[in-house]
Amino acid sequence: MKDSHLLPLLTLAKKGKVKGSVYISSKDLGKELGVSQQTASRWLKELESFGAIERELVKGGQTITITEHGKNYLKTFFVDMCELFNKKNDELTIDGTIISGIGEGKYYVSRPFYKKQFEDGLGFSPYPGTLNIKLTDETDILLRKFLDRYPSVILKSGTDEGRSFGHVRCYKALIDGKVEGAVIIPLRTHHPPNVVEIISPKNLKETLKKKDGELVRITIEV
Predict the structure, then answer these.
(1) Is 34 annotated as a binding residue?
(2) Of the candidates 126, 187, 206, 208, which lies 20 to 30 Å from 74 by C-alpha distance?
(3) Which fold has domain 90-221?
(4) Looking at the predicted structure, is the pLDDT value of residue 185 above 80?
(5) 204 annotated ligand-binding residue
(6) Which positions in this protein are listed as binding FMN (predicted)?
(7) 83 is in an annotated binding site
């Protein structure tokens, strides 16, 4: 697609909250974008031909739905903008709610094989356990994926007590603006992409005085 298609696609996405359909005429879209009806109509036809939208012509206008291809185009633009601005800010902030885990994090964080690497790479010995944070906002989920672009502290894979362990990427972070910690992303994990694990030298639930379902803000150094 052309760069000129971004503005009409973004406008449609905002009106339909990305996932919904939008009822709008070419005339009204043109007025909103500051272009002629003919230009707006041409842009819509081009977006449709590129597979970015699906249109259903109805009386007085049309119903427009953004396709997965169109959403991915917007996501790519979003990630590029985040990368541009985060080069200056050197931090990335995501919000999520605390959820209970199955206790697996405590076992892995406590392994001598990992513990020494945490101390060397992050500068602290982690409390035996991880805080699981569920991301529900689509922007926060995208930012979590965006994190993969940045360099991290790498915990190497290997064996310990007869078991094999995969490598882990770590990103130093500040939890709720006051507690030092790190986001850890194991190569092997049972968590879905919208769940992140946090470690800290402190018991985070006790220190933050928070429980399951409460909001936590993670500011990550990038």
Answers:
(1) no
(2) 187
(3) Elongation Factor Tu (Ef-tu); domain 3 (2.40.30)
(4) yes
(5) yes
(6) 189, 197
(7) no
Average pLDDT for 172-193: 89
d(CA 67, CA 173): 35
Is 9 assigned a ligand-binding role in the annotation? Answer: no
197 is in an annotated binding site: yes
- Beta strand pairing call for 91-99 and 21-24: unpaired
The number of C-alpha atoms within 13 Å of 3 and in the hemisphere containing its C-beta is: 0
Share of the chain above pLDDT 90, in %: 43
Neighbouring CB atoms inside 10 A of 139's CB total 12
Query: Is there a binding annotation on residue 209?
Result: no
| Structure token digits, residue 43 | 């842009």
Select 3-72's CATH number: 1.10.3720.10, 3.20.20.450, 3.90.640.10, 1.10.10.10. Answer: 1.10.10.10
Is 104 annotated as belonging to a binding site? yes
Span 81-91, average pLDDT: 64
Task: Give the pLDDT mean for 10-39.
Answer: 87
203 is in an annotated binding site: yes
